[in-house]
Amino acid sequence: MANTSSAKKCVRKMERKTNVNKNRRTNVRSTLRKVEDAITAGDQTAAKEALIAAEPAMMRAVGKGIFHKNTGARKISRLTKRVKTMSA
Known about the structure:
There is one protein chain. The chain contains 3 helices and no strands. By secondary structure, it is mostly helical. It has one domain: CATH 1.20.58.110. Helix 1 packs antiparallel against helix 2 and helix 2 packs antiparallel against helix 3. The radius of gyration is 17 Å and the shape is elongated. The N and C termini lie far apart (58 Å).
């Protein structure tokens, strides 16, 4: 447990930041899941639209430090590849 007032303040700040980051991470995962669902359903137009919404959300989360840079790039790359193979 924190003893000093500054340490107690740091704990309060960390709780707030943790909640914000959890919400952001949840929203990004939801957008990625929409792309996955559209791919499994075989709906190419919905998959493209969901991917267009998911990419900036993921990169915004990367910029905020919620996901690692390579993780974001890898996920978007794999989803883009899967959406492209649907058209072939």
